[in-house]
Amino acid sequence: MESLPKPLPPVLACLSLFIGAALLLHAGAPLASSLPGANSSLRSLSGVSVSALSFSRTHFITLSSAQVVYGRAHSYLGFDRNQYPGDNALPILRKTFAFSGYWLSPPPGDKTNTWLGKRELLRSQGFGFLVLYRGRDSSELKNQAMAKRLGMEDATAAASAAKSEGFSAGTIIFLDIEEGGRLPATYHAYLHVWFEELTRAGFRVGVYCSGIPVKEEPTVIITTADDIRSNAPSRDIIFWTYNDACPPSPGCAFPQDPPSPAAGGIPYAAVWQFAQSPRRKEFTSRCRAAYHRDGNCYAPGDSAHAWFLDVNTASTADPSGGAE
Question: Are residue 218 and residue 110 in the same domain, yes or no?
């Protein structure tokens, strides 16, 4: 007698139907990674995941890691530098980078700001923005009263400059903090007032700070990012962290599929600066070949090596929301 095909066991039949539905759903929807600037909610909708499916103890089937990965979150490359690179550089840099740093104040060590007045030109070229304002050095904050006064002055000046440059309310302004390790109490007082006043002016608060672990004691390791976050009056602060140590940094590199900002070691970072110019030898000995022989990082299209720069990866093509 010819045997008839046996029906699939209930568990396998259910799993087959689930995966089939996932494939049909994906076939009718574009990949989130193909949508420039797509936000995380859109990406999550376009990626159907078969995760943590548990059936009865009789079958002992648990699929905790089998995934249909279609819309994995995409990251974007950007650059920043203290000096504006010049109008002619923008088309070349745009071939590699989705966003650019933009100073509202003179950068550290400078008395003038060459970025002022360039927002519309950068925007017309398709750049997003990382909007920056120089923070104080801790040596300037002599006591709590002075720290609070300077925090208010700097927040007011940053908001005024942002409005003058055409950045709308809600733009994230990153306070540039160059010091690493744990910050003194006066610096946290300065930051508290900065956060409050900038928010009151209608802008969102961000900080640019170190994500490099520092050993304070044999059993105590701290990063500046964690120190700021644990002392901040609110969790609504956007972090742009720098960690150019190799690893995790790839050095001066421009991958088509950039790493996630969290790959820099700070899981809540929205932006990760992974290469600096000039390279810091104490952190980059394992990736020195990725940098130019003069120690700087240059974009692939910069054949004349005219614009050394820092390289960043972000979860959006406009990390400050400054192109809106």
Answer: yes
| Distance separating alpha carbons of residues 257 and 159, to the nearest angstrom | 34
User: What pLDDT is stored for residue 298 in this prediction?
Assistant: 98
Contact by Cβ (8 Å): 273, 242: yes
CATH code: domain of residue 89: 3.20.20.80
Cα–Cα–Cα angle for 147, 175, 157, rounded to 5 degrees: 70
Tell me the mean pLDDT per 10 residues along the chain, length 324.
42 45 42 36 35 34 32 86 97 98 96 97 98 96 97 98 97 96 96 96 97 92 96 90 97 96 97 97 95 97 95 98 93
211 and 187 belong to one structural domain: yes
What is the reported pLDDT for 202? 97
From CA 131, how far away is CA 249, in angstroms rounded? 23
Pairing status of strand 62-63 against strand 214-217? unpaired
Can you give the residue range of the structural domain that contains 44?
A: 10-63
pLDDT of the residue at 33: 35
Long-range contacts of 109-112 (CB under 8 A, 24+ apart): 109/82, 110/82, 110/83
Lookup result for tokens 């962290």: 241
Q: If 0-12 CB within 10 Å is exposed, 13-18 middle and 19+ buried, where does residue 304 land?
A: exposed
Q: For residues 138 and 185, give the distance between their C-alpha atoms in angstroms, rounded to a whole number.
A: 10
Whole-angstrom Cα distance, residue 280 to residue 290?
Answer: 13
Whole-number pLDDT of residue 233: 84
Q: Are residues 81 and 55 in the same domain?
A: no
Assign 241 to helix, strand or coil.
Answer: strand
In this structure, are 259 and 176 located in the same domain?
A: yes
Using alpha carbons only, give the angle 149, 155, 156 rounded to the nearest 5 degrees. 90
**Any domain includes 324:** no
